[in-house]
Design goal:
five-stranded parallel beta sheet; 12% strand; binds cytidine-5'-monophosphate
Length: 213
């Protein structure tokens, strides 16, 4: 049974890699960021982002969360992502979501012979004994440009595009800072991870590199 752990910064290419590996090897894939996004989305929807009991509210939503609910396009917004990285600093929330990720891995590994998880602490915390660990990164500018392309917006003015890119870079910088500096499970490569910078390579080149390994 094979466990594959993929970690890295936002828009580094880890999600595309996870999906491609899942297709090739027929192992289920979980984008664990969606768990944090779902809790953040529920708090925003219920207008309790400034609650005094924010950590407890997060845990209440996390306990109720099911994997089926993760297929929701509203979870993909930058506002949800920003709030997700804020609540991802709560260790009690992380404990609940850690269990869900391990449960997903255990179930699918048995049923399909392997499982792929992507996130921020998969190789260091969730699957410390994973057979393969990858840490994917890229320059801030390249990552922001990728996110902008994904949004598929046709800009009327070059300045609007520049402004949006600038905002995306600021948001990502903030998120990276929170993820890297938090006390509980900070974003960091596992000691035994292959570290790959995708700034100058395509998604397909990354996939080939990883499948060679
Ligand atoms: O991967 P994605 O960008 O969707 O994740 C949103 C946020 O959720 C991240 O910025 C990070 O703060 C948090 N996260 C985490 N641990 C994970 C996955 C995501 O802390 N395993």
């Amino acid at each position: 049974m094979i466990e594959i752990a993929i970690d890295g910064t936002a828009a580094s290419g880890k999600g595309t890699l996870g999906k491609k590996l899942s297709n090739k090897y027929s192992f289920p894939y979980l984008d664990t960021g969606m768990l944090y996004r779902k809790v953040a989305h529920d708090l925003i929807k219920n207008k309790i982002t400034n609650s005094k009991n924010l950590e407890k509210n997060c845990c209440d939503f996390a306990k109720k969360l099911t994997f089926k609910e993760l297929k929701n396009e509203n979870l993909r917004s930058e506002d949800v992502a920003k709030f997700a990285s804020k609540i991802a600093t709560f260790s009690s929330l992380r404990n609940i979501l850690d269990e869900k990720q391990k449960e997903f891995n255990d179930l699918n590994k048995k049923q399909f012979g392997g499982c792929i998880l992507d996130g921020r602490d998969i190789g260091t915390k969730i699957l410390p004994n994973a057979d393969f660990k990858f840490f994917i990164t890229a320059s801030l500018e390249v990552r922001a440009k990728r996110r902008l392309l994904e949004k598929n917006i046709s800009f009327l003015h070059e300045n609007d595009e520049k402004c949006m890119l600038h905002n995306l870079m600021n948001d990502m910088r903030e998120r990276d800072k929170l993820d890297i500096n938090r006390k509980s499970s900070p974003l960091a490569p596992a000691k035994d991870a292959y570290i790959i910078d995708t700034s100058l390579i395509t998604a397909q080149e990354l996939f080939l590199k990883v499948t060679n390994i």
